[in-house]
Design goal:
Layout lengths: L21 H13 L1 H12 L10 E2 L7 E2 L4 E2 L1 H5 L4 H4 L3 E6 L5 E5 H18 L7 E5 L4 H13 L2 E4 L6 H11 L3 E5 L1 E4 L2 E4 L1 H7 L9 E5 L13 E3 H5 L11 E2 L3 E7 L7 E6 L1 H13 L8 E4 L6 H13 L3 E5 L10 H9 L3 E4 L1 H10 L14 E5 L5 H11 L5 E5 L33 E4 L12 E5 L9 E2 L3 H9 L2 E3 L2 E12 L5 E6 L3 E4 L2 E4 H8 L5 E11 L3 E10 L8 H15 L8 E4 L13 H9 L14 H13 L1
Parallel strand pairs: 4-17, 6-7, 6-8, 7-14, 8-11, 11-12, 16-17, 16-18, 18-19, 19-20, 30-31
Antiparallel strand pairs: 1-2, 3-13, 4-5, 9-10, 14-15, 15-23, 21-22, 22-25, 24-25, 25-26, 27-28, 29-30
Helix pairs in contact: 1-2, 5-6, 7-8, 10-11, 13-14
Bound molecules: 5'-O-[(S)-ethoxy(hydroxy)phosphoryl]adenosine.
Length: about 650
């Protein structure tokens, strides 16, 4: 049996939870196994305010292009805002806290007005129609959520680009989506100082973005910006002219709701396309099941709206559930490492959701900070984005949660839309740093390529073996890549099944522990980056002949980026520190500061097979200082491994 201690939920705290016992969990799982479509149909009817009810549940004819509730009609902005006006019009929908501590509260009624005015602006002034793409390059301010919902209201497809991405990265995403409108802000505030976004948009639009007809700019930090006549428009000026009434566009369940670009193991980022009904259904259900959201709760997810976590658990999930969601512009360590705990006290936060990187950082910088604040409102602490280590988990559980809160380690991806594997706060006995069990209705299994279950304690492929409502529908503009990326590796009963790209292990309880990516994706501070993207950026450095990047374990960030660089001209003049600086300048331009290299090593060559494939696994082992267990005899030059090991040893 498992030696580790299990943490049982506080029964009193969770007596009213939607799923408040393991019996209830198993009953739901059983229901899903016996009648999969019936299970989902039941919840879809119960949770969504349909304009026209669906008659078909799951269409598998064109697998893996699955369709859910396809003849149903709805509007996601209606689901998230309008329908709450009958019962919650004066309830806070969004509580915003700025970097400088400024506050703004939007009730559901105020949010409805702002969304409607913005929707009218997009539609009437910028000619945005159903199906058009709108790129949002926004700071963490309520207008970001408002713009997302305004798109949903009129049936436009938004693509939020994280504000840390560079002009080049932004341009790639604008062009790939062929966006008609870009919504941005002058900038915002971080660590007490203004930072800028609009100049990045200006730079992105310098070339190749003929699709963009207008740029709509929200004023946030008031800094001077350049205005391009006939292209740039001030949001608040135009908003004044718009009516606060706006009809919802009627949307088909399978119409795209949004695109979100994410990194894969190869090539350029992929535009993950999500649907209307399936996505919003699961966003709302997981708010109820995993976060046990209650009418008077205040929910805070610290993610950025530029990532899927921000989409599902700052905007869509909480609002669909009629909850109060907190949006924070700043960083957790400013003005000090007590910022988050002060906010938990101030707003009486009930659910706090963040990334392990933030937890490790707050632990390191302020282990005793939580004691200075009244954190008794907290019931649930969540983590997401990367594996959490037991030490960080313990601190979170004891010091932040007072040993009383349920800690939910939620495993999911941009492509899954919402949580896949997670403890249920009122039911699941938790093993630290383990995502535990699939949520009811989610057929998550650790299997071999042929579908046989991987033996307990061994690493296998983390797959979802049945389609689920909130799954990715396709990669924008590249359906073949969609099929290849997710349905090319594993089969069950002869049928291709969704492979996450992660490895995982089960224990004797059936609990699943995620062991990390099996592909060439690096997870830095919970940000997902593809080695291919970083390498193609570094290759633009004039003196780089070849490069391979790998993730190197890092105390705070989880992983940091390490690059093996083969120079074009290795005349002994090039200096690692200088070259690293130059390489980082290139990365900053091509991708953004989130993908900076921490360290590099000059190497004579990369370990390649005779067919020219770089053996990245060897490079990963080398940087960790692990013994090389891989067979090196198939390498073009087996001696290179020794040489690289020697170079790393000298670096120390
Ligand atoms: C990793 C973030 C361990 C995983 C929602 C996945 C995790 C990738 C966890 C998706 C977790 C996410 N434990 N690893 N609880 N949650 N991951 O698309 O490798 O930005 O494939 O979505 O993060 O990252 P993405």
């Amino acid at each position: 049996m498992s030696q580790e201690k299990l943490y049982y939920p506080d029964k009193e705290l969770f007596k009213d939870a939607a799923i408040n016992s393991m019996e209830r969990y198993h009953a739901l799982m059983q229901e899903a196994r016996e009648d999969y479509e019936g299970f989902w149909a039941r919840f879809a009817k119960e949770k969504i305010d349909w304009f026209k009810p669906f008659t078909k549940v799951l269409n598998e004819e064109n697998a893996p292009f699955y369709k859910w509730f396809e003849d149903g009609e709805l509007n996601v902005a209606y689901q998230c805002v309008d329908r709450h006006l009958a019962t919650r019009k004066n309830k806070a929908a969004i509580i915003f806290e700025g970097d400088n501590g400024d506050q703004r509260v939007l009730t559901y009624r105020e949010l409805a007005y702002e969304v409607n005015k913005t929707a009218n602006l997009f539609k009437n002034r910028f000619g945005v129609k159903k199906g058009d793409r709108v790129v949002l390059y926004m700071p963490m301010i309520p207008e970001a959520a408002i713009a997302m919902l305004a798109c949903a209201k009129i049936g436009a497809i938004h693509s939020v680009v994280f504000g840390g991405f560079s002009a080049d990265a932004l341009r790639d995403r604008i062009v790939d989506a062929q966006a008609k409108l870009v919504v941005t802000a002058d900038g915002a505030f971080r660590k007490g100082k203004p930072y800028m976004l609009k100049p990045v948009v200006d730079k992105a639009l310098e070339e190749g973005c003929e699709c963009v007809e207008a740029v709509c700019i929200v004023e946030r930090n008031g800094e001077d910006i350049r205005w391009v006549e006939g292209r740039d428009y001030a949001y608040y000026e135009l908003l004044k002219e718009q009516s606060h009434r706006c009809e919802c566009e009627t949307m088909g369940a399978e119409d795209p709701l949004f695109l979100l670009y994410t990194s894969g193991s190869t090539g350029k980022p992929k535009g993950v396309q999500h649907s209307q009904a399936g996505y919003i259904l699961w966003a709302q259900m997981t708010m109820e099941w995993v976060f046990d959201i209650k009418e008077n709760d205040t929910f805070w997810c610290t993610a950025d709206v530029g990532w899927i976590t921000g989409h599902t658990y700052i905007v869509y999930g909480p609002l669909a559930a009629g909850a109060t969601t907190v949006m924070f512009e700043g960083v957790p360590t400013y003005p000090d490492a007590g910022r988050c705990w002060r906010m938990v006290e101030e707003y009486q936060i009930n659910q706090f959701y963040t990334a392990p990187t933030a937890i490790r950082m707050l632990h390191k910088l302020g282990a005793d900070e939580p004691e200075k604040y009244d954190l008794s409102s907290l019931r649930i602490l969540g983590t997401v984005g990367e594996p959490i280590d037991p030490a960080a988990w313990q601190w979170y559980h004891e010091k932040v949660g007072g040993g009383r809160c349920s800690v939910v380690d939620t495993y999911w991806q941009t492509e899954t839309g919402g949580h896949m594997i997670s403890p249920l706060p009122g039911a699941t006995p938790v093993k630290p740093a383990c995502a535990t069990l699939p949520l009811p209705g989610i057929m998550a299994e650790v299997i071999e390529e042929d579908g046989t279950p991987t033996p307990v304690g061994e690493k296998g492929f983390m797959c979802i073996t049945k389609p689920w409502p909130s799954m990715i529908r396709t990669i924008w503009g590249d359906p073949d890549r969609f099929v290849k990326s997710y349905f090319g590796d594993c089969k069950k009963d002869g049928k291709p099944v969704y492979f996450t790209g992660d490895g995982a292990m089960t224990d004797e309880l059936g609990y699943i522990t995620i062991t990390g990516r099996t592909d060439d994706v690096i997870n830095v501070s919970g940000h997902r980056l593809g080695t291919a993207e970083i390498e193609s950026a570094i290759k633009k450095h004039p003196n780089v002949a070849a490069v391979a990047v790998v993730g190197k374990p890092h105390d705070i960030k989880g992983e940091s980026i390490f690059a093996y660089v083969v120079l074009k001209e290795d005349n002994g003049v090039a200096d690692e520190v200088e070259t690293l600086k130059e390489i980082n300048e290139v990365i900053k331009k091509e991708i953004g500061a989130i993908a900076l290299c921490d360290d590099i090593a000059f190497v004579p060559d990369l370990p390649k097979t005779r067919s020219g494939k770089v053996m990245r696994r060897i490079l990963r082992s080398l940087v960790k200082g692990e013994a090389i267990t891989q067979d090196t005899s198939t390498l073009e030059d087996p001696g290179v491994v020794e040489k690289i090991a020697e170079i790393l040893k000298c670096k120390g």
